[in-house]
Amino acid sequence: MSDQDDEESAGEGWIVSFADLMTLLFAAFVVLYGLKPEGIGDAIKVLTVTASIRETFNETPDTIPEDRRTGPTIQGKAAFEYFKGETLVRPIIKRYRRSENVLNIINKEMMQIKRVIDLKLQDETVLNKRRKKDDSQNQGVSVHKDTNGYVVRLLSSYFYEPGEYRVKQKDLRKLKELGRALKQHGRRISIEGHTDKVPQQGQYSNWELSALRASFIAKYMINELGFAPDRVKASGYADTKPIATNSTPQGRKLNRRVEIRVEYDE
Question: Which ranges does the record mark as transmembrane (predicted)?
Answer without folding.
Answer: 14-35
